[in-house]
Amino acid sequence: MIVIPAVDIKDGKCVRLLQGRMEDETVFSDDPSEMAKRWNDAGAEIIHVVDLDGAFAKSPQNLVSIKKIIASVDADLQIGGGIRNEETIRMYIELGVKRIVIGTEAIRNPSLVIQACEAYPGKIVVGIDSRNGMVAIEGWAETTQTSAIDLAKQFEQYGLAAINFTDISRDGMQTGPNVEQTKFLARATITPIVASGGVSTIKDIKKIKELEPDGVIGVIVGRALYSGTLNLKEAIEMA
Hints:
CATH superfamily: Aldolase class I
CATH class: Alpha Beta
Strand order of the largest sheet: 1-4-5-6-7-10-11-12
CATH architecture: Alpha-Beta Barrel
Radius of gyration: 16 Å
Helix content: 25-40%
Number of helices: 11
Number of strands: 12
CATH topology: TIM Barrel
Largest sheet: 8 strands, parallel, barrel
């Protein structure tokens, strides 16, 4: 299982939000590339980069910061936020990004996911953000009538690299991950699952690690790393 540190970018700064609320932010660094390098040097294999402004603007908004991260680290990057068309996907692939996370468009325009999987095999991730079991989109501002499981199963045959599954109610709250819902989703689909939301301590890493036989291949960690309740090196060793 891979432990994946998150670097969320808003207005060119590295921030963490509570439950995705843009107004509820904590700034951890004025230079996201410094944070990415810190996690890179601690042994991260993949770093999860989110363009928060892009998620709301529907197009990349923090390219300067993202290019600086790419130049600063050896770890692979997966990038999400504002990825709404093939041009943006191609741009990131050409910049050397390993995985592209498609969220809103998986609901709005599922053909984009299918075409991207065909064009860039092994590089496409669908981000499923769940509020009470239903998929939330548009930077989590809108909750749909599509269940997380139905969306996951929709893309099973197209060779997704993974599904990033986030329980919004846990995100940034450090209340522990939603282990049961993560297990439920992992067992319901053949696509590998990366868990996200609520990780607070090394005990939470252990709980997610126990879901490996169910198909959970990774866990994204954010606020716990920044607030110091979780040590990335220790988490990687545990995983």
